[in-house]
Amino acid sequence: MKNDNAKCKIIFIGTSDFGLPAFQALLNDQNFSIVLAITQPDKPVGRKQIITASPIKVAAEKNNITVLQPEHIMDIREKIALLKPDLMIVAAYAQLIPEQILNIPKFGCLNLHASLLPKYRGSSVIQKAILNGDEQTGLSIIKMDKGLDTGPIIAQITEKIKPQDTAESLHDRLAALGADFLADTVKQYLAGQLIPQPQNNQLASFARSLKKSDGLIDWSKPARELERFVRAMWSWPVAWTWWQGKQMKISSVQSEPIEINSYKPGKTFKYNNGLAVQCGKDALIVKTMQLEGKNQMTSEEFLRGHKDFMGSVLG
RNA sequence: CGCGGGGUAGAGCAGUUGGCAGCUCGCCAGGCCCAUAACCUGGAGGCCGUGAGUUCGAAUCUCACCCCCGCAA
Q: Which nucleotide across the nucleic acid strands is nearest to A301, CA versus C1'?
């Protein structure tokens, strides 16, 4: 039986639920001792603006792990140093960590990242992979340096992107894969079995974080591209368009575009009893949608109550 | 008290000078057809979110409350 002194002392840094399975795996592993969790401050969420703790904070408290939530992580540099951590692990923290912090742990600082680096550094990396029509993406664990997702790669695994994958479904799958992947990789890393490989900066690309407005559909783009766009924007910010001065979310479309180019982009028309929208090249069949103020529903249901919709122009 | 839309048949929606509750789809029964998600005939299905108030009379006007949703964060 190992005592706590023999365990690897880890500080876990993360905010969103992407890092949750990995965090949980570390907590459950007898080889590790999580001495501190660092996460973003509680923030108002939802229509009622209820102050809500991050998923990482909730999980940490459930496991009696101390939680710190500094505005800036530099504010707690001293506290981190006093703990003399062996390793720090970062997963979806949403804040750049300065070198002075990265240098504190004996074995440095590892980051679990949701793409195959150097492709897609940054934050909206899962969306980007779907948007670009990639066949596969994956997880990378890198040893962090002062740059944003620029550190040398320690381990990677790939994951196929399914034709029906949304950013949400792919996110959940990658997050789940992160559990064993991280725990195993950390052990091998501590055992000195993994050698960090520098990233090829020539191949690097960057995915900036998304805003609500990034979900606005440009109907002049090809249908094939917009189909990926709808999946990439789900479940946030969601692909949306304008109709009669109101926002309308397009939550899902049929995967195969139809080869019709008879209308102006954004024009709606009937196709096999379904609702089709003309795009820049070919057209898309809308499966489910949501008008602001209303619930999400199938296009069939929507059309029942909106006889004037068919034939209008969106966007 | 952040801003705004909404709650009417199983579903989606109409319905305010207050006056018998409607449409499309679905469902049930029957008919037509070689056949059908097509078409024809008939039918069932409503505490109009809840509670008060105004009125001869309220889905409709007034007040309070509950619930759903969009924005914002």
A: B12
